[in-house]
Specification:
Rossmann fold; 3 domains; 461 residues; 33% helix
């Protein structure tokens, strides 16, 4: 088959394209600009056109689009006119998993890291699993791997409902919160969607559910066919953590299943949030009979996912951390992780992502940012949304007391970079948060403080 991907530079699209190419399929694509992800695809033989044009689909037999591609895209229109099948990214992912035993990782936060950790655990146990990841696994240097075993680990996206297209053997739900919704009134429907997803698992399957999040935990009370395992810090979790020690941007913890100590595990990625992510990976590995020693080795050497508390620079002058956090819960957890390891001044630069999210969660963002010593707010990264009158980064900042106290407003990313470079005190940690182009600010700051720093692109929102 000849596949053409519209928006091939997206992190999820590129993962699918890489796997198809590794299987010997003919793959082409298009996107608006060249990125390291596109460079990597081209190195595998994928032809990528820059710019969307109807002629790009002339040889295609299947056209793949993501949720970011609207129906007026010239390539989508050309495919429709010619009768070329158009598949959503989720449909194409479901085809990739056909005939494989899927392990789907879903939830509002933590699914990318949990997916990568789970894949690492399986690898350490001698299971050459497939992988489709919404980020770049630092150890693999990639977001995709086809694998030779029947197992395939993938992120499952609830934001566009595409996770409902998958039919995995196992599923992990990390947590459920309001991220892509316009009202809390929609939350019961989202919980039902997760419950329906888990209900499709086979009777001999496994549902691994986060116990620490109330909405996720509620799924365990639904009438589900598969075996249910819960994980978390809660004392009633099936797999829980105890005796946690945080040090050196990492942690050690005991994992206990029921009344039995599974073992003591090591992490080199920071924060309580990553202990929770690791517990899910431990639960899956244990279910697949991966030896405890192999699970520990996998977690102890796991280097994380790019833009998930990615430490770009750690020096006496300054520590710079780049993180994808763009929801209040993730912002709060990332700041809490930073506090666990850093005793100096904590400066948070935050770029809100989408007008709708900012309008709906401004108060929650302000509360999450409150624990920073100083907050620099960049203009909203729209992600193709139209502006909403009266909604801006100041919607968050005014709830923190406005300009002059804890808050500093910036006119854009260039201004943010300049001010952080000039105003950061010695010994400070700079935590740059957001799903937009604030990641470029983090990379440039690391270079300004030390010299050139090699970066590879992470997820594009």
């Amino acid at each position: 088959m000849r596949y053409h991907f519209v928006g091939i530079g997206g992190i999820g699209m590129s993962a699918i394209a890489r796997i198809l190419r590794s299987r010997g399929e003919s793959v082409t694509g298009s996107d608006l600009s060249v990125t390291p992800l596109i460079d990597d695809l081209r190195a595998t033989g994928v032809k990528v056109a820059i710019g969307h044009n109807a002629r790009n689909v002339r040889d295609a037999e299947v056209v793949v689009v993501s949720s970011a591609i609207d129906r007026h895209n010239p390539e989508s229109l050309a495919a429709a006119r010619r009768g070329i099948p158009i598949l959503h990214r989720g449909e194409m992912l479901a085809r990739l998993l056909a005939g494989r035993s899927g392990i789907a990782i879903c939830g509002t936060h933590g699914k990318t890291t949990t997916t990568a950790m789970t894949h690492a655990v399986l690898r350490a146990g001698g299971i050459d699993s497939g992988l489709a990841l919404g980020g770049i696994d630092v150890g693999l240097g990639s977001n995709a791997h086809d694998g030779m075993s029947p197992w395939f680990v993938t992120e499952a996206d609830e934001s566009d409902g595409s996770f409902a297209l998958l039919e995995p053997s196992m599923a992990v739900v990390t947590n459920i919160e309001n991220d892509h919704l316009s009202s809390d009134d929609e939350l019961p429907g989202l919980v039902r969607a997760f419950a329906e997803f888990l209900a499709k698992l086979p009777e001999d399957g496994l549902a691994v559910i986060g116990r620490d999040n109330p909405l996720a935990a509620s799924l365990a009370s639904h009438d589900l066919r598969p075996r249910i395992v819960t994980f978390g810090f809660d004392r009633d979790a099936t797999v829980r953590a105890a005796n946690i020690e945080f040090s050196g941007f990492g942690a050690r913890f005991d994992a206990i299943a029921g009344d039995r100590l599974l073992g003591r595990f090591r992490l080199r990625v920071p924060g309580a949030m990553n202990v929770q992510n690791a517990l899910a990976a431990v639960a899956v590995g244990h279910a697949l009979d991966v030896p405890v020693r192999a699970i520990d080795a996998a977690l102890a050497t796991f280097q994380g996912v790019r833009r998930r508390f990615e430490v770009l620079l750690a020096s006496e002058r300054v520590t710079i951390v780049d993180d994808y956090a763009h929801h209040p819960t993730a912002v709060r957890a990332t700041i809490a992780a930073a506090r666990q390891y850093h005793r100096g001044e904590l400066i948070v630069a935050f770029q809100p992502h989408r007008y709708t999210r900012t309008a709906f969660l401004a108060r929650e963002f302000a509360a999450a940012l409150h624990d920073a010593d100083r907050v620099y707010l960049a203009p909203i990264y729209a992600a193709s949304e139209p502006a909403i009158p009266g909604v801006s980064e100041r919607s968050i900042g005014e709830m923190l007391g406005g300009e002059g106290g804890q808050v500093r407003y910036t006119s854009g990313t260039d201004d943010l970079e300049r001010r952080l470079f000039e105003e950061a005190p010695a010994g400070a940690m700079l935590l740059l948060l957001g799903a937009g182009d604030i990641t470029d600010v983090a990379a440039r700051l690391a270079e300004r403080f030390t010299g050139p720093v090699e970066r590879r692109a992470a997820a594009r929102a």
